[in-house]
Amino acid sequence: MKRRITIFVISIFITFAALFLLSGCSKSTSTSIPTDTNNDNLKTDTKVFKEEKIPEQTYQPVEVKEYQDFLTPAYYLEDHEESVKEEIDKFIYYVRKEQFHNPLENPKGQRPGYTVRRKFGDGIGPGGTATHHPAEDLYIGNKESIVNIYAAHDGVVSVFKDAPKYRQYLSITKEIIDDNGNVIGKLVTIYAHLDLDIDESESLYMGGQTVIKGDLISKNLYSETKGGPHLHFEIRYYSSLDVGDETFYGFSGPAGNSDLTEASAGGWLFGYWNPNIGYGFGNSKNHGLSF
Question: How many other β-carbons are positioned within 10 Å of the β-carbon of residue 83?
């Protein structure tokens, strides 16, 4: 009898223990679900995206550069529109990415001996005060006239004969394009005091030809050039609206019958400009040359 009672008590104890354990597990696994339906109390993690404004590209002013270009007075004078200066600064920024080939260097990297008689910016004319020399004059050897001349950069060649200033010369024109694909101006290099008649007699005619940097463009300097045969190497900058062969700087002033009516400015003392054409002249050192 006692044994049955003991077994009965033990079974009751086990039953209550099991019910207790099941009750604890149910509480620990239950999830409380909020029943508040008030929308003001419900918060969402929503991010508000604002359109990021891309800052406008600015270009380093030309005047902080070590080697000064010779630019139109419109760039330097305060009475001209600020947009002109910004336009030229942008052009200079892009055009200086063009690093030149030495026009006397052959495909093997060899150059003849030469001297520079007139440097970029030298005063020339009566008393050395009429104009600045916007180029370099390169005399090869003992004033040799049979000299190979090579393209300083890629572009299209134009031929000029009977020109009042340079007699015969070639120019190479390349459009300068910004990162958006817009033409913002023209780079033109001048190779003057050539003898293109002899070149043509030797079956070298470059008019209208597209060349790449380092291509042969002439083999003869004009032997009768005043002071002896030499290469006049000049870098011109034009706007995108210019043709690219206009004269925009020289001796003439307001008293003459000329479009050159505005005096040089910005530390440049001599000569007059057509204020409506061209950006100016480039210093070859800014294109990687060192004559």
Answer: 8
Cα 251 to Cα 127, 155, 166, 247: the distances in Å are 13, 29, 15, 11
Predicted confidence at residue 42, as pLDDT, reads 42
Cα distance between residue 279 and residue 261, in whole Å: 15
User: What's the CATH number where 163 sits?
Assistant: 2.70.70.10
pTM of the shown model? 0.80
For residue 176, what are the β-bridge partners? 185
CB 208 within 8 A of CB 160: no
150 burial via Cβ count (<10 Å: 0-12, 13-18, 19+): buried
Q: In terms of residue numbers, what domain contains 139?
A: 62-121+134-175+186-240+278-287
Rounded distance between C-alpha atoms, residue 61 and residue 88, angstroms? 9
DSSP character at residue 64: G
Would you state the pLDDT for residue 79? 75
Kindly give the parts of the chain with pLDDT less than 70: 1-56, 60-66, 254-257
Alpha helix ranges (H) inside 141-213? 196-201
Q: DSSP strand E in 4-145: where?
A: 70-71, 114-118, 123-124, 131-132, 135-140
